[in-house]
Specification:
mainly alpha; EC 3.6.1.27; cell membrane; globular; 11 helices; transmembrane helix
Length: about 260
Amino acid sequence: MSLFDAILLGLLQGLTEFLPVSSSGHLVIAQSLLKNFKEPSLLFDTILHFATFCSVLIYFRSKILKLFTAFLGFFFYKYRVTYYDNKRFLWALFTASIPTAIIGLSLEQYSETLFNVPVYAGYGLIITSILLVLSDRYKGNYKIDPTKGFLVGIVQGIAVIPGISRSGSTVAASLFLGIKREEAVEFSFLMALPAVFGATLLQARHITSIESDQILNYIIAALVAFVSAFFAIHFMIQFVKKAKLSYFGLYCLILGIITVIWL
């Protein structure tokens, strides 16, 4: 992998991780087009996901700190008020992680095949486009709760399939369940943290497989993904508020059809 490849893939990951266009789908397509590109299993994709994970930590640092304090309130009395103020969101994140982990681990054995066949990403993009177009019709008035969180977690688990946008599908699922738009996108970003962290731990055992001449490229790709993701988060939040996800849906539909036909 050249330095150009690393920068391009890092930029793709950063921009598309939080825009509802499927970062995994774009990476699969890009890697199939890059000449002589080789990657060690899913490790490179996982490192890029971890970089975007860090961008979420910084962007939502105040919310995350509040949720962490609320978690402590489950055990310590002095944080109990914070716990009761945030327990609905906190337990929703917990219940969402359960189906995500189960489905994600179940599909892990098929990941190599899915990521090596671009046509699967194409079909996934078409599915994403349908979800995005339909979601613009919904304007929720409810807040997230553990039951709704569990259902959205199922969708996040399925979104491990390349082409199905994790952010797009989970935001759409939240809107279908009547969740307010602002809370839907915030929950979508934060619920990704346990899943990405878990995937990083699973792939960490392959870290020694990185060739010495590729270490710098991996670091640069991660930095590019981190910076671009930070800006993509802000952009996505504004777009969801304005109910214009169908624009991304049209893009996914066109790219999906092109991928299925020509790749």
